[in-house]
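Blinded run. Sample ID left blank on purpose so nobody reads anything into the name before looking at the predicted structure. Input follows.
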Amino acid sequence: MFVDAHCHPFDLKDYSPQAEEERRKLGVICASSAAVLEEFEYCERLSNQAKADNAAPLLPCFAVHPQMPLVMGAHNLLQESLSVLDTLAAQKRLCAVGETGFDLYNAAFKETEKTQDELFKVHLETALRYDLPLVIHSRRAMHKVFAFSSELKKCRAVVFHSWSGTEGEGEALLMRGVNAFFSFGAAIMLNHRGAMRCCASFPAERLLTETDAPFQPPRGREFSCYADIKAVLGAMEALRGSAAYSGGVYGGTEMEKIIETNFRAVFC
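Blinded prediction complete.
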């Protein structure tokens, strides 16, 4: 099966109302991201219906996104979201805590760094308490991630959504005992040299594919969709020297099975 380790079904439906139908036809197993209760409940409905129909699984995840302190602002709203997180985890309705982490991309986000620190600690504690995988968003903040490496190595698994670190940073996380998985999407199709080098060199058993749909679209497109996962996997194969990717067409190889095995080891 194709694997989409990070997507946003609630947002995607506004771009593509038939997205869930497309996902099922393609047989894409995915982990969905939600940052507020309405989003999570939508993903959970899709998940339950997929189970009932014996369709490709959709696994619901939840976290207060590190950009939310800037977007939401009010402290009480953030606390309400953290309460939702704990309730969902306690009720065993979550497949992972995420995406959480740090975003220091610009001055506005940097102003919320202290709040991001506090939120991440709560998310990490929740993942450890309920033995859930942790999905991390990190932009210009790998130093923050490494500050928590001793705690992260206690996590069942840590998925780095849209990995933007270096080869050395990825290797260092593994050396420190973090059960890390590195997820790659459109960046490896858009000539992002750092992501391409990492995708080519990291151990196959540590790789995941994603679309981040509808965000991070391929060049020339308004949004990304589940069908893009074939191109992502094909680009991964090409970077790793497989002959299965030729002329922009993915032919299917052992890598597809490896990525599915990795996904199931993390989320299932």
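Unblinding after everyone has recorded impressions. The chain is about 45% helix and 15% strand.
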